[in-house]
């Protein structure tokens, strides 16, 4: 009988230890899932903001941000860029084009777009017909803390 009691007691200890281990692992698993889920939710929530939510805001900001981007790349303008709405723009599909000249008389064209549905913006800058920036997600000071 004594051996039987010891065996029962030992099995209870093992089962108890396994339960504790399972409880700890289960809690850790739930915590990991919560953190991953929270991270995914955060990424989905923060990806959805357009920098410029209206055509007017994009048109007003583009000459400043494009000039700063060009300056950062060693290209100076002879005068501020002039911007206009591109045909086909809507409240959900922003389209702006800016033109100007560099200080050494090369043509500059800037294209900026924003899509409300995809929450993405793209910017391209051509100097003398050659791309200096292609499909960047931000320009100049708008790129602080972001990759462009």
Quick structural summary:
The protein has two helices and five strands, in the order H-H-E-E-E-E-E.
Can you characterise this structure?
The protein has 148 residues and is an alpha+beta fold. The protein has two helices and five strands; from the N terminus they run H-H-E-E-E-E-E. Strands 1-2-3-4-5 form a five-stranded antiparallel beta sheet, with helices on one face. Strand 4 and strand 5 form a beta hairpin. The radius of gyration is 29 Å and the shape is rod-shaped. The termini are far apart. About 9% of the residues have low confidence.
Secondary-structure map:
Elements: H1 2-47, H2 55-72, E1 82-85, E2 93-101, E3 107-115, E4 120-127, E5 130-136
Structural class: alpha+beta
Widest sheet: strand order?
1-2-3-4-5
What's the pLDDT, averaged over the residues? 82
Distance between the termini: 76 Å
Number of H/I helices: 2
Main β-sheet description: 5 strands, antiparallel
Tell me the strand percentage band.
25-35%
Uncertain segments: 30-34, 39-46
Oligomer: single chain
Helix content: 40-55%
Q: Could you tell me the number of beta strands? A: 5
